[in-house]
Specification:
alpha/beta, Rossmann fold, Dehydroquinate synthase-like, alpha domain, 2 domains, two-stranded antiparallel ribbon, 14 helices, 10 strands, binds nicotinamide-adenine-dinucleotide, binds zinc ion
Amino acid sequence: MSEAAPLARPVFGLRILERRLPQLMRRVEPTGIWVLLDRKVEPVLGRALERALAATDLPHRVIRFTASEKNKSLAQLEKLAGRFLRAGADRGGLILGVGGGITTDVAGFLAATLMRGCAWGAVPTTLLGMADAAIGGKTAVNLPEGKNLLGAFHQPRFVLADVASLRTLPDREWGCGLGEVLKSGMIASPALLRRIESTPPRAIRRAGAEALALAKAAAGVKVKIVAADPLEGGERKLLNLGHTFGHALETAAGPRKLAHGEAVGLGLLCAARMAVDTGRARPVYAAQVLALLQRCGLPSRYPGKLPSPAELTRLIGRDKKKAGKTVDVILPIRPGRCEILPGQQPRELAAVIAATLG
Ligand SMILES: NC(=O)c1ccc[n+]([C@@H]2O[C@H](COP(=O)([O-])OP(=O)(O)OC[C@H]3O[C@@H](n4cnc5c(N)ncnc54)[C@H](O)[C@@H]3O)[C@@H](O)[C@H]2O)c1
Ligand SMILES: [Zn+2]
C-alpha cells in the first residue's frame, strides 16, 4: 500500500497550525489521532496542537518522545508501538509525527509497520524537516550497523510546515537546514539561490517570511524530484549532492564539531571545486557557492586539522552508496543544474577534499 499512496504536497505558512491542521487530519477520516510529539517543541506549539486536536472532535492521545539518534532505534520503536496500542491506536487511526526529522522518521516507520500499516501525517518543526526529512516518504530507524538501515517507503497523507514553530530552533539547527536548502537550490532552483543572495543574513535564520520562502522553495525541489522517482531508482540520487564528501567530513570531525548540514555545506564546496577542475563548471560558480555558504552562516573551512588523504579515502570508500569499489558523485555544473559522474575512485575524491579544504 505504501508505494501506491500519492506524494503529499506540503502545506506551508506562518502561524497556520491551529487553522489548517484540523482540516488536514479530518480529511483522512481516521478513527482517532495518535501523536508522537518531540518534547522540545512543546513550548512553541504544544498549546496550538492541543487546540487543533480538540477541534477535530476525534479521540486523540499525545505521546511524548525525546528526539535523539540513540532513541531512533528498534528498541524505542517497540516501546512506542506498545504505548500507542495501549493508548487505543487501531488500523484506522492516524499517526501524527510532530518534531524534527528524527521524530517524523520514527512516527512514519511506526505508521508503516503498526498493524501492517496505517495512515500518518507529518508536522516538521525543524528547517531540515520542512525542507527535506518530512518530504518523500522515506521512514527509518537506526541499527548498530549504521543510520537509517531499517525502514520503509511510506508516504504521509499530509505535511504541514508552520514556519512560526522555528522560533525556538537552536542556531546550529538552522545551519543544518540551510545546508540542505542550499543543496536544493543548486540541484534545481536558480531562483532559490538568488533569493538567498537577496535576503539579509539576519532574516535567513529568523522564523519569518524570508525563511518561509526559502523552506518552501527547497521543499518544492524535493517534491519535484521525489515525484519523478518515488523509490529512488534514478533522479532522486541528485539529492545526494554534497553528501559523498560531506559524510566523510562529518564522520571525521564528529557531530559536535561538524553537524550534518554543515558537513553537507563543505561537501557542496568540494563538489563545486571538482566540477571546475574537471572542466564542467566555471570557476565563478565555485566562488558563488562559497559566497552562498558564508551568507547562510555555514562554515567554509574544516574545523581543525584535515584528516590525511589515506584516512579520507577510507571514509569515502565506506559510504554506503558506493557500487563496487567506486563511488558516484554529483557535480554542480551551473545554478540549478547537476550531473552524475559515476565510477569515481575514493582516492581521487579524497584529493578533491584536500585541494578544497586543505
Ligand atoms: N526521511 C528522510 O528522507 C530524511 C531526510 C533527511 C534527514 N532525515 C533524518 O532526519 C534526522 C535529522 O533531522 P533534524 O535535523 O530535524 O533532527 P532532530 O529531529 O534531531 O531535531 C534537531 C533538534 O532540534 C530539536 N527541535 C526540533 N524542533 C524544534 C523547535 N521547533 N524548537 C526547538 N528545538 C527543536 C529536536 O528535539 C532535536 O534536539 C536524521 O535522523 C536524518 O536521518 C531523514
Ligand atoms: Zn543530508
